[in-house]
Amino acid sequence: SAAILAGGQARRFGGADKGRLAVGGRTILERQLDALTGVADTVLLVGYRGEAPVPAHVRCVPDEVPDRGPLGGLATAFSAAPGATILLLACDMPFLHAPFLSHLLELAGAADAVVPRTERGYHPLCAAYTPACEPVVRRQLQRGALRMLDLLPDVRLRVVGEDAIATFGNAAALLANVNTAADLDALGSLLNH
User: Fold this and answer.
1) Nearest to residue 113, comparing CAs of 150, 144, 139?
2) What are the φ and ψ backbone dihedral angles of 36, each rounded to 5 degrees?
3) CB 71 within 8 A of CB 166
4) pLDDT computed for residue 18 by the predictor
5) Spatial separation of the C-alpha atoms in residues 65 and 74, rounded to whole Å
6) Among 116, 92, 121, 102, residue whose Cα is nearest residue 4
């Protein structure tokens, strides 16, 4: 299953629905759904509060517990797709593609979590999490520890480094996300990478 986290408040982006932002003439959500075709049997849009309609094959799932950030979104995805490995994606990453996402899922057979890491650090919002992570996620939520990075030391982690990422394209472009209007403007230079 894939879970696109759409429940954030996008404070740095004026509260806009970042999945509806256009990059290269298509919305980020359209781009992500295309990338997930053939990769995930189930696509969940977690925490979506937008008004725009979503494709029929996408299941909108409200956050189990609001305002718990991405970790809460991952817990919601585990509840919505029991027993599934969850390919977790932030809704603001326009350049993800099927071969890279499939690779993350393939590696999940030998780890609890598969997380890319670049010079910018870990990218836990473009990662695969097996059901073995669910109890750890729930314990963290109960303690109020909401940082995704705090999950990683407590699970069997497979890191996908820059060399491996580079076989799928430019890591900066592939894992680019949009937090501000300036980030959106900068994406134009990454379109052809």
Assistant:
1) 150
2) -85, -10
3) no
4) 65
5) 11
6) 92
Residue 71 parent element (H or E):
helix 69-80
Give the separation between CA 120 and CA 113, rounded to whole angstroms: 19
Would you state the pLDDT for residue 13? 46
d(CA 179, CA 129): 24
Tens of pLDDT along the chain (193 residues) come to: 999 998 755 454 455 566 677 778 888 899 999 999 999 999 999 998 777 788 888 999 999 988 899 999 999 999 999 999 999 999 999 999 999 999 999 999 999 999 999 999 999 999 999 999 999 999 999 999 999 999 999 999 999 999 999 999 999 889 988 776 666 666 665 555 4
Strands (E) across the chain are located at 2-5, 22-23, 26-27, 43-46, 58-61, 86-90, 113-118, 121-122, 126-129, 157-160
Residue with tokens 């990769």: 39
| Gap between the Cα atoms of 16 and 19, Å rounded | 9
Spell out the SS3 assignment of 102-132: HHHHHHHHHCCEEEEEECCEECCCEEEECHH
Q: Which amino acid is at 143?
A: R
C-alpha to C-alpha distance for 67 and 166, rounded to whole angstroms: 34
